[in-house]
Amino acid sequence: MYGAQRLGGLADVYIKVNEPELAIDQIEYLLTIPSYYHVNILRLHPSCDPLRNNPRFRKLIGEPVS
Question: Which residues fall within 8 angstroms of residue 60, CB to CB, at 6 or more apart?
């Protein structure tokens, strides 16, 4: 579980340095392993706000892509 926390931290860093695709790569992986990352958390968590308009992120969390 600690590895997942590190990867989540890495995703946060990627978001902060404006590397959304790298952040989404980490998030995609985190959703495939046992961790506290879940689609419902990603929909609500403020740290994901910079990704909200990204079509790849929207598809990942099950929201319509326009």
Answer: 24, 27, 28, 31, 39, 42
Query: Whole-angstrom Cα distance, residue 6 to residue 30?
Result: 10
Give every CB contact of residue 46 below 8 A, 6+ residues apart in sequence: none
Q: What is the pLDDT of residues 3-62, one digit of tens each?
A: 889 999 999 999 999 999 999 999 999 999 988 889 999 999 999 999 999 999 999 999
Q: Are 36 and 4 in contact (CB under 8 A)?
A: yes
- What is the model's pTM? 0.89
